[in-house]
Design brief:
This protein is an alpha/beta fold and 314 residues long. It contains 10 helices and 13 strands. The protein has a domain of 210 residues: NAD(P)-binding Rossmann-like Domain (Rossmann fold, 3-Layer(aba) Sandwich), CATH 3.40.50.720. It is globular, with a radius of gyration of 19 Å. Bound molecules: NADP nicotinamide-adenine-dinucleotide phosphate. The site of NADP nicotinamide-adenine-dinucleotide phosphate has 27 residues, from helix 1 and strand 5.
């Protein structure tokens, strides 16, 4: 099976690279044609239709895994066309190509398609109502892929982090070395989800998809929520990060963390207050059960500790 992995240097893309190789021949693609570590790979710019079509044709893919995205949520408010090109219009091109050549598409989306005004975990078919440009562009991308007629899995996740890349955990670890006190938002609720879990569950879904009888397989394509189980606020996540990092010997001292309201930390893009996604469909259709976010945190802190001791990341 030929697999094209778009966005192979992102948090999720990087974690997908090795496990996808167990499923088939992987062509990795990044914006600069280089993988983390320096190896050459396919170069692709999702904002450039010709570049994207060329990559699709070159790869001769039977499965396209799209981990690339415009993810700068605040910057998107000033760059709506760029966000739309990468998160929406590229999906129309990928979908069209996949439908024509009977390829399947795995695509990632976000809790930001919802407005966060709920107290119940969001289900796949709940009404979407994005609060900002990023969420709107991701929702438009989902819809373009659905409309293409290509067989697809849209996996909505949230609060993604990893031992590398730009994320909340890495920011907290850096700030811990610089400040005695941090103020962190306590009224946004979600489920921090490690990128390596997203990769692991994606591969498991693809494996189980192949094992399903044809009729069941067709019904199994569609949209799924895929996040860690349980929930917390950013403030609670920060406290847990410092606790685990201290226990792992990553921090000598832990800063004081003060809970604040979103209104005390204004950002260009509004964020959903309640981002918890319901993973029940994933369990029902694929018998895959998400684990609590705190377990994921321990694993990622372990990865940070071993990467630091081997000098891989600072
Ligand atoms: N991060 C989160 O908290 C979060 C939450 C919910 C859902 N998601 C979704 O999960 C998926 C994976 O997110 P992530 O956290 O792994 O994102 P990420 O770390 O920001 O990685 C995104 C990757 O996309 C690449 N990319 C951006 N624009 C591109 C372009 N024009 N052409 C080619 N590649 C381009 C980036 O390349 P460069 O390395 O060159 O910039 C980067 O490697 C995305 O669909 C995202 O919307 C993420």
């Amino acid at each position: 099976m030929n697999i094209l992995l778009l966005g192979a240097n992102g948090q999720v893309g990087h974690e997908l690279l090795e496990p996808l190789r167990d499923l088939g021949e992987v062509t990795a693609a990044t914006r600069d044609g280089r993988l983390v570590g320096g190896d050459a790979c396919l170069r692709v710019d999702l904002a450039d239709a010709e570049s994207l079509r060329h990559a699709l044709t070159q790869s001769n893919a039977q499965v396209i895994v799209n981990a690339a995205a415009y993810t700068a949520v605040d910057q998107a408010e000033d760059e709506p066309d760029q966000a739309d090109a990468i998160n929406h219009r590229a999906l129309a091109i990928i979908g069209e190509w996949a439908a024509r050549y009977a390829a399947r598409v795995v695509h990632y989306s976000t809790d930001y398609v919802f407005d966060g005004k709920s107290e119940q975990p969001w289900r796949e078919d709940d009404a979407s109502a994005p609060l900002g440009v990023y969420g709107r562009s991701k929702l438009d991308g989902e819809n373009a892929l659905r409309a293409s007629g290509a067989e697809h899995l849209i996996l909505r996740t949230a609060w993604v982090y990893a031992a590398r890349g730009k994320n909340f955990l890495r920011t907290m670890l850096r700030l811990a070395g610089e400040r005695d006190e941090l103020r962190v938002v306590n009224d946004q609720i979600g489920a921090p989800t490690p990128a390596h879990w997203i990769a692991e569950y994606t591969v498991a879904m693809l494996e189980r998809m192949v094992q399903k009888p044809e009729q069941e397989r067709e019904a199994a394509f569609g949209t799924y929520h895929l996040t860690a189980s349980m929930r917390c606020s950013w403030f609670e996540f920060a406290e847990a990060i410092f606790e685990e990092a201290k226990a792992a010997g990553l921090l000598d001292r832990v800063p004081r963390v003060l809970p604040i309201a979103t209104s005390e930390y204004p950002t260009p893009a509004r964020r959903p207050a309640f981002s918890v996604l319901d993973n029940a469909k994933l369990a029902r259709i694929f018998d895959l059960h998400m684990r609590p976010w705190r377990e994921g945190l321990k694993e990622v802190i372990g990865q940070v500790a071993s990467a630091r001791s081997s000098g891989e990341i600072s």
